[in-house]
Amino acid sequence: MLAPKQxxxxxxxxxxxxxxxxxxxxxxxxxxxxxxxxxxxxxxxVQIPEVGSAKPLTEAxxxxxxxxxxxxxxxxxxxxxxxxxxxxxxxxxxKQYPDQAVVIRGDGRAFYQKVAEVMAACEAxxxxxxxxxxxxxxxxxxxx
Length: 144
Description:
- By secondary structure, this protein is an alpha/beta fold.
- The chain has four helices and five strands; from the N terminus they run αβββαβαβα.
- It has helices at about 15-35, 85-95, 110-125, 140-144, and strands at about 65-70, 75, 80, 100-105, 130.
- The protein has a five-stranded mixed beta sheet.
- α2 (about 85-95) runs parallel beside α3 (about 110-125).
- The radius of gyration is 35 Å and the shape is elongated.
- The chain starts with 16 loop residues before the first helix and ends with a helix.
């Protein structure tokens, strides 16, 4: 004869009491340890050295784009400026970042005189990395 299946009267459970005891003990430990290592950094007397010329700690920003529209207006990024203002603006940037790159994007229908004036302004500001943006034409366009 087969033995009848025994019914399990107690349901299985996880005893949480030891885990709660450990968590509370750790909480008290970390609270006490935090108070022991509460240093007041304002009391440390540090004098930072000074030098006459130092390079900036940040990297140079991405290339600056000078736009020349068909009517001859000039803008650095999206901010319109006069050609005389290009030199002043770029001079302050080149003073901080000597290797700052500048890209001139001129409208193909703009007068070359404006492009030449902007290039001269970049040279006067001390820009050493200067490029003129162009678009490559398709081979079929060249044959026409």
